Amino acid sequence: MKVTLISPYPDITSFGIRTISSYLKQHHFETQLIFLPDPFGDNFVVYEKRYDENIMNELTNICSKSDLIGITLMTNFFDCAIQVTKSLKKRLNSPIIWGGIHPTVRPEECLNYADMVCVGDGEIAMLELAQRFAERKDYRDVSNIYLKKNGHIIKNPLKPIVQELDTIPPPDYELIENYVLDNNKLVKMDYESFKKVICNTIVSKAVKTGNYMTLTGRGCPHNCSYCCNDSLRKLYHGQRYLRWRSTDHVINELTAIKEKFNYINYVWLSDDAFFARNVNSIKEFCEEYKKRVNLPFHCLGSPLTVTEEKLEYLVDAGLNSIQMGIETGSRHIQEVFNRKHMNNERVMQAIQAIMKYKDKISTIGYDFIMDVPYETDADRIETLRFISNIPKPYMLGIFSLVLYPGTSLYDRVKEDNPSLDEEKDIYRKMYGKVEENYTNLLLMLCKNGKLPHVLLKILISKYVVAVLDNPYLRPIYRLVFPLARKAMHFIRGEK
User: Fold this and answer.
1) For residue 477, what pLDDT band results from cuts at 50, 70 and 90?
2) Any idea what DSSP says for residue 361?
């Protein structure tokens, strides 16, 4: 019994399919992993075809001995999943199952293409499905699995969310039967080819060394209206949603990776809110990390969870990069985002705590979300005014809002605007491409933290805004934006 798992994500970490692969291998199933980074990346393309036909032919050959094929996807990669699925179905008889956040929130839609959909966590469901296939038993009642029968959709009940994360092995990096799309060819990965891929990721280039990404937990303590966690929390209503792996479980994973790949010299903790761990847990983690891993690392925080005490332990253990989601400086939009408890005063407290370690943290990043349907000019100026008071140094991550299906904000916008063009504004919208207007231009100029605060305050003053924040100037801003992006890349030393 062989299970093939495919990811279209640009980052080959793809934690979900790697942990499913580990879990299946633990129970003596054969797996192969195929990574198909979307060739178009962040570029908007108005058709489904993402990959060349020669790639689809190669993929078919690689998958020819698969008994079950799984594809993971977020909403932005819907087109990729459709093309891969259609192509494989033309040539193979292997059943195809979709999993990930988009199939979880829109299973009925996904069953127009896939034979089955996995809703929610995938490890236990995929194991049970593989067991049924291997034993040639009926699989139509497997928990978490949706499928069609005689034109009707069978919706099997959801298993309780996994609480003991240590029962799931660390992600699979054995490099056995692993393939990656590289230079328009599917390459079988070994030690050297994996090194080439992992050392050329965006993060590895940023930290100037091989970087390893992992998760130390699942879930998030917050309930932001725009986030996929909002969808999953509703799915598992009444169950403990934020869960952590034990320190030993994580450290054993990191030491194994460090020993196996000697070009890994940096760790990226990708948890939505690593700082949500309590102080004792962070202290324990830091002690073991410093003793057994001892590599510089990055983690994410939120204004409600970042504290000076936690920072002290983390910086001592090797934290040299931190990213915190501020998202907006507008009180109105904080309410729209369900983040009113993260007001500007609380955000500034967290910033001040971070700034106490500015000499030891080489990269301090703050994220903002723009292009919000309910945002006014006054809201955008309020955000810029807040930025003009953030102490330097910092880097800003500027993202355009994507209304992911299943979130509370999506539901609200859809109710207010039933004619919303989902194909254009959701499925094919890239969060890295912001609207080309005056306020977003200012945000872009602020990205590297070099724009003087005095100048920014002048540029957002009432009279300057009245002149420059003008719809008639949009064509000019469309011309200026590419130049501004190039300037930012040049300043950061990027090609």
Assistant:
1) confident
2) -
CA dihedral for 313, 314, 318, 320, sign (positive or negative): negative
Q: What is the mean pLDDT of residues 417-424?
A: 88
Q: In the prediction, which pLDDT does 481 show?
A: 80
| Helical spans, DSSP H, in 96-136 | 101-105, 107-110, 123-134
| Range of the structural domain that residue 320 is part of | 199-491
For the CA atoms of 466, 471, 476, 482, the dihedral, rounded to the nearest 10 degrees, stands at 100
Residue 248 half-sphere exposure toward CB, CA atoms < 13 A = 2
Strand partners, 330: none
Quote the number of domains for the chain: 2
3-class SS of residue 405: coil
Does residue 182 form part of some domain? Answer: no
Average pLDDT of the chain to the nearest whole number = 92
SS3 at position 210: strand
Residues 259, 115: one domain?
no
Beta pairing partners, 35: 7, 180
Q: Is residue 194 part of a domain?
A: no
Nearest alpha-carbon partner for 295 in 264, 324, 271, 323: 264
Orientation of helix 53-63 relative to helix 78-91, angle to 10°:
60
Task: Please check whether residue 183 lies inside any domain of the structure.
Answer: no
What pTM was estimated for this model as a whole? 0.93
- In this structure, is residue 180 part of a structural domain? no
For residue 153, what are the contacts with CB-CB under 8 A and spacing of at least 6? 107, 108, 111, 146, 147
Neighbours of 184 (CB within 10 A): 11
Cis peptide before 391 (omega within 30 of 0): no
Sorted by sequence, the CB contacts under 8 Å of residue 63 that are 6+ apart come out as 4, 34, 69, 88, 92, 94
